[in-house]
Amino acid sequence: MAVMMKKPWFYVAVSFFLFPSSTYSQVEDGIYVIPNLDAYLVILSNNDIVKSYLFSLDGTDSWWVTSEGSRVGDKVEMIQTTQSDIAAVVVESSGLGLRMTDIYCNPYPSDNENGCKALEPTVSVFPVLKANGNLKAIYQTQFGADYVVFESDGVGVLLAFEYQEDLSDRGWIGAYTGILNDELTFTAQETAAESLPSEDEEFTLEFNLQISDLTNPQASFVNFSCIDNRPNPSERGCEYLEEIYFSKLIRKF
User: Fold this and answer.
1) How far apart, in Å, are the Cα atoms of 234 and each of 71, 97, 138, 142?
2) Cα(32)–Cα(28) distance, rounded to whole angstroms?
3) For residue range 189-207, what is the model confidence (pLDDT) as tens digits?
4) pTM to 2 decimals?
5) CB 78 within 8 A of CB 50
6) Domain end (from 115, 130, 145)
7) What is the residue range of 83's domain?
8) Same domain membership, residue 114 and residue 147
9) Most buried of 1, 84, 193, 241, CB within 10 angstroms?
């Protein structure tokens, strides 16, 4: 369903990834860049529990993986499980940014020749966008996408991580911005960056995100609109999409 779903809410301009940042004394929530890997890292925390997404925006070669862990003093320790390995890293403050170092990496299964090749033993990580607002949450859609949502200096930010052909094909990423108004609705969407441009889609979709509150921020789709672009529309049109794929968001972090 990813082919039909790539009309997201609010875009993070590519220029966000180029903003200079001040020194970080600890591992703070937000978006970071890892030049050695040509990749980005987004970190969100809930008390001492941490969730992160490591991703690369490189057209058809784009990819994303998730990690979970916790804060240990000023450091963050996280575990990452993929189809080829089980690894753990520690992230800590270092100069103008962070340093990410392997704790261990084991191929899975043990004779998998593709395991433990994604990361260098130690890489430098530099901050580009802080998650310093009251809203920090991760939601999952009915078509399996993860939506990482937070505020940065009053701007709403969404990172969308979607599957493509199957649940092992983590190849589509979108980044978006918007305004969180007094009613806690994300509006004023701006298009910026996607791993693959949305072209010749079967459906044109537009919608906003309604946040319930900032204490336990549940979310729902509002102001949904849909245009069926297919030459020969079938019964599985806009009403079907809204009911089956855009009627529920579940918060998972």
Assistant:
1) 50, 52, 33, 21
2) 10
3) 776 688 877 666 888 888 9
4) 0.87
5) yes
6) 130
7) 15-130
8) no
9) 241
